Each structure stands twice: as C-alpha cells, then as structure tokens.
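re: that complex we talked abt at group meeting.

here r the seqs, copy pasted straight from the sheet so there may be weird spacing, ignore it
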Amino acid sequence: MTQVDDRLMHDSTRDPATAGAERVSRRGFLQTASAAFLLTGLDRLTPSYVRRIAQSVKVPLGGAPLAPSVSSVDLAIRDTMVDIGGRRASATTINGTIPGPLLRFREGGEAIIRVANGLREDTSLHWHGLIVPNAMDGVPGITFPGIPAGETFTYRFPLGQYGTYWYHSHSGLQEQTGVYGPIIIDPVEPEPFQYEREFVVVLSDWSFENPYTVLDKVKKKADYYQYQKRTVGDFFRDVDQYGWRAAIRDREAWAKMRMSPVDLSDITGATYTYLVNGQPPEANWTALFNPGERVRLRFINSGAGSSFDVRIPGLEMTVVQVSGQHVQPVTTDEFRIGIAETYDVIVQPSGDRAFTIFAESSDRSGYARGTLAPRAGMTAAVPRRRPRPLLSMMDMGMLMGPGGMEMGGTGMAGMDMSGKTGSGSGMAGMDMSTKDMAVAPPSRTAAGSLSAPPGALPVPTAHGPSTHGRANASTPMETRSRLNEPGSGLGEDGWRVLVYTDLRAFKPRPDALHPPVREIELHLTGNMERFMWSIDGKKFSEAPEPIHLTRGERIRLTMVNDTMMPHPMHLHGMWMELENGTMGDIPRVHTILVKPAERVSALVTPNHVGPWAFHCHVLLHMEMGMFRVVQVSEPSVAVRSQP
Amino acid sequence: MSTDRARVCRALSLLAALLGAAPAGGQGMPGGIPHTTTMDMDRQIRVFALADLLEYVPNGTGAIRADGLAWIGGDFNRLYFRLDGEQPVRRSDGQTAVDVTYGRLVTPFWTALIGGRVELRGLGSSRRNTRGLLAVGFEGMSPYFFEVEPTLYVSRTGQVSGRFATSVDLLFTQRLILQPRVETNFAVQAVPEIGVGAGVNDVELGARMRYEIRREVAPYLGLVWSRQTGATAGLARAVGESVGRAGLVAGVRMWR
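got the structure back, here u go
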C-alpha cells in the first residue's frame, strides 16, 4: 500500500483533505485493490503507512515506478484530535495524520507543494536534507517570513537528489505536536541494491503534555523528566562491587563538576510515548512480508527529543543509505539514529515467523516498537530494555593517556570505545580491526590544522583558553574524534553496532579530496542548570554574527561538543561531507550526531547563496538558542579573478 | 477589571524590558525578513515560585515556618524575592524577612544578588519592630551539588549581619529524597533591641525526607535542631525565652 497513496499525492486537482487515500494510480490499483476494499471510513483518509497494518506493493526489480516529473501536492496543517494508544489528544497535523503523508518524488523532477495553514499561528515546512533554493527552505525569520494563519504558501523547487528524507515544521514547537512526515525521492539511475518490498519507518516521540509546558518545566528544573538518577542504593551497590575508594572517587568526579552521568536526554519516557509511524508500542505497527523477500526499511528519526537505538532481533540489517545517500553496504545488528537522521536498511526475513523492530530511546526510558510479520496479528517477543547507561569520563573530555584510556573515575561508568563493536563492511568483508588500522587516529597535536588531508579524522585537541562564559557550564580538557564509537550504552551487548567510521560513500568521490581553504571551529555549548543552549556560548537571540561563507569555497567545519549531551547538528542548504577517515570515500550527510567531548569535522562546499540555518535538531535545544545562520554570499570579484 | 489587567500587562512589559527580555513582536533579522515568534523563544520571561519549606513546627505552642524563593526574568537577569518567616500559631510575635533583589547570572552556576531586605519582628503584637537593610549576596550551586545562598546585610546605621543557608538532595529513590540543610545567621555588631548579639546568632540543622508525588508537590517529614548561640542566646535567656529546640516537623515543598 505504501506506494499507492503516495503516488496519489501527486494529483493536485482535488481537495487536499482526501489526497493520499482515494487516488489510486491505475498501475497501483490492481495490485492493491483487494487491500483497499477492506478499508473503510476514516481509515480511507489515512496514508497507508500510518495504518496499523501496512502492506507495501511488490517493488519491481530495478526499483519503484517513477513519479511524474512534476509532482504537485496539497498539504493542510491544522489542529486535529488524534488517537494515540487509545487516548485522545490535541495535535497539529499535516492532512490529518501523524506523521503526515509520505511525499514521493522523482529525482530530476520538480516539486510543487501548496501548504495551507489552518492553525491560529504561523507555520512553515522545511524539507530536511533537500538542497533547495534558499527561499524554498522554509525557515521562518531566516529564509522566508513563515506562513501566516489562514494563508497558503506554494513551495516549488527542483529535485536534484535521490533518497529518503523528511519534512517538518520549523515554527515554534509544532514539530513536537505532529507536523512532520517522510519524503522519498526515487533515483533516476537504478539503485545498487535490490529488494522486493519497502516500508517507511518514522520514529518519533509524543507527549500528551503541551510542549510549552514541557519547556517551562525543564527551564525551571532541567532534570524534571529524569527518573533514572543514581541513588544512595546505587552508591552502596557500587561500594560492594568496586570498593569504597572507587565508588567515592567516581561520585566525586561528577559532583565536583556539578554534572550528572545520567543526562542522556532532557525529555524522557516519563512524558514521551515513542511512536513507529504514529503508533505507540501497544498498537504494534506491523509490516507484512512474504518469507524470503528482501525488505527495505527506510528509518527516519522525526523525534523532537529522542535518539533511538534500532535493532530487529533475529535479523541482520544491511545499511545501504544514510542521509538519503547510497553507502557501501554495511551489515550490522544495531544502529543509533540521531534526531533527523535517516538510515535505509535491507533485511531478509525468512520462515513463518515475526520479528520485532525495536527502537529503544538512547536513555532507555522507553521504546518504540513495530513488527515485521508474514501475516497480520503475528508478533515476536519484545526485548527487555537495557539498563540506562552512564556517561563516562570520556564524555567529560578528561585527558586520555597515549596508551588508551585513563579513567578519571572508576571505570564503572566507562564505555569501551575501541572499535571491536563496529560492524564489518558487508562488501569488503573486512573486520573492524583491520579497518580501524586504516583510519587510525593521528597522534595528538596542540590544535587541529589545515594540513590534515580531506577525509581524515580530526586530531585530539586540547580545549582553548575560552570557557565560553556563563552560558556554558563545562569545557572538556581535550576533545577528539569519537566517530569509531557506537555511543553511550551501545557496543557492550555482544552484537555489532554501526559506527560513523563504517560509512563509505558508495562511489569513490575524488572531488572530495579537494582540500579546504579555511577552517571554521564552532563549540556546542550549554548550561543545563538553566536549560540554556548555545554555540560558542552565545544564544541565537544574542544576535551573533552569521557564519560567512562564499559560494563555491571549500571549508572545513569543525564542531566541538563542550557539553555532556549528544547534539544532532543539521546544516541547511548544503551537504556536510563527514570526515570519518575514509578519505576519498567520504560520505555526505545532512545531520551529524556529535557525541559529548567530541571533535567532528565536515567539509562543506556551498552552492546556493543565502542565509541558511545551522542548528541542533533537539527541538528545545534549537529553540533555546543552539542555532546560527550561515550566510553564503557570491564570491567577490577579487576572489573570482584569482586563478 | 480590564483596566487592571492592562495595567498589569504594562507593568510586566516594562519589567520585561528592564530585564532585557524579548519585546513583543520581536526584532528584524538582518536582511529585512521579519522575525517571527520562532526565534524569540530563547529569551522568554518566566515566573518561578518555590516554597522550599512550608511546615508545621510542633514545638511549644506550635508554629508555621516558611522559606520560599520566587523570581521573574530570563536566563541572565531576574528579579528575586525571598521570604523567610515563622509565625507561632497561638501567639502573635512571629518574624518574617523579605529580600527583594536583582539577580544576574555571573558564572554558569552563580547568580549575584543586590537589593533590599525588610525584617518584621513581633508581627501583630505591640512589640512590633521593622527594619530595612541593604542585601548583597549570591545564589547558586557549589561543587558537590550544594545549593548555597550566602547573603550580607547592612542596616541604615551601618550594622553588618549575614545569613548562610545550604542544602543538598540525597536520592533514596527517584521520588524519595532526603534534604539535609544548614542555616546560620550572624552579626558583626550587636543589635540588642531586636535580640541580636555580636557573633554567630543561631545555627539550625535539618534533615527533611520528602516524597515527590509530582516534581512540583512533595510532602515531607523532618527532624530539625536549632539553637541560638553566644550573646544572642544570652539576650534570649534574659527575657526568659528558650534558646533551642529540636523535634519533628511536617510540611510540603511546592513550586510552579
């Protein structure tokens, strides 16, 4: 069904309220008629993938049939009463559902999207990961004034890329209350992998509380939703296990810094219900397959405040696309998907059995769940949640000895950061240790330098003298690349976990080796006590200067996370080429989950002039000021005249 | 009614402007595109009120004790109100102090406070005594998660006194929390007319175990030991008052 109503979206002549359900392309109709006839009433207005039982059409070898080259869509954003796990709730929706309709386009075509604002406040839609002309990017106050209540705005842009993406409101906290949906752009060239069936898996988080109330609570008590703190009992358990000295030293290290080792998420399962395609775990969103088929799952994290750790017990997943871009296939058992990231995986379930799609929130306070099954109603065991992890001294940015990790504390909080848990490349069949040697981090230097070749990992670097003022509560002593680490709470389970150093562009990209002409270093900063988030210690409202870039110039953007929380950093309007040590195979991404005390670099070549947003995709972090404008200007005559 | 509301709104927006917060409507982005509500959220004004202690003290004839904090403002600049008072249930000689200070975040964990304090003694009795003081202090969190509020006061006649309070939360479960608390008052010069001697005036040690039904509402039971010391204790003995007490307290901690 997935494809049917999506193609239906392209016909714009009818009322947007019924778009997405009733229009059936001639080709899709015959294949899905029997399924469609079973659907009645409200269900018929619902895009198929957000229904509880989803059955995709069989995908012909060589990929899905292409959408028309000019695709026209009508979207209506309005207040809607929705049902989340049997509980009525007030939401803001796109065409009446959470998530909104799947938009399916064709690479090389053009999208015309009319967005009608039925809310009593401004709205907007941003096409996450799509490189579009600046005025079509949909960031109110930056690229356009927003869509006022009662008005309609028409987005029109060429589709110059393929892949899995998503779209969401960039206004207020509407993203938290339901204004998001998936995008698929089918490639013109055949894809370098095959599958018989495909599903979109939109992961998200829902709160029955008003998001402005949630914000108010965390502004007044930042750990309001944190119910996994260490207790007196935990202390004595650690004493039993590690001795008094170690237990006290560990508590002391955190207490001295006034930091909590359990701050993995601000908003937790204490208020969130985690959703798969709009369905809570009890509703068990189910995707149907025929045993032996290859199934493509397009995972999208549309959450406002949650990273998910995704696995399908019993099935290995072959990652084929990340951020909508083909990568060399990597087989893994689990991956962490930061907010706004997309991962496309292919699985091959066999036998007459069901499989659970298990997406644990990274702080382990809850999970989203779906099922892959040959028949509706079949379920598989739902794994137990793992214990919540603790941040480590590594996350604090303590100095590490040259021989590896010198734990400032006891090691009880420590995560092993060796590459042993990484996933092997499915193509090359290399194991991680071999690959690790190829991308071994260079030795520590005083500061990162331009001399680092494109694609190389940033070198460990001591933090500079500035502590970024009162808006920043901590500065790591040293920051280093942590792209080879799976992240807090991952990698200790005896199965493979994807790491960023596993990602290689599908095709070698010799152009990526073009060296940068300058380097921009930005520090991600915050003060948890006041729930202030900022870049280089300045909130966006403090009117910091935009980051100035020139069209066509190649720069290295280095992000240094001074905080103890991971931040999914998103750059609008241009790709970030993630320098993960793969040199000429450097992958392109639109969002990077930057770990605590991590130094990450990306190469950027802007091709579109204008003010572009750059921000943390934790919704409240963005709204509290972890946001900048990247201003891309035409090269000046002087620059242009240079050889 | 509506004019009252308008007046309140005007007063609040003036206050907001003074505190450096977002003016309604926002300001333009460079490039002429009007700022919408989206990008103003990081400088919103909020109002916070906490009754840290609100308890019944069964000693003697019984008393109601309160220690509260409120602020209005943004991330950096706030107007703080602090109330510390005790009112016996059957006698009319309670005392209350209210501090009104401007607070500015000066380091990530510390707010500097400057303003005034009004002390009211013998409330509702013939021995009523009021004095105003200049207040200078800090409010914040020290390493090891101690909430600390040291404040110095200067009277109109130049007498210097001070107050120091600190507390820490120990979690037995995610909702059952023990809060040890220390509070002490001291004076550089004696002020006998209000029963204050030079030196440390009093020390109070408390341990309150609360249960957070919600984060905002937590009933508690506590053990409190307090004692007047030195010259202050002498002055109290001279008028036949007891100088110390110890016992159980019961109350509720609330905020919004």
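couple things i noticed - Chain A touches chain B through 51 residues (CB under 8 Å). Chain A has a mean pLDDT of 85.
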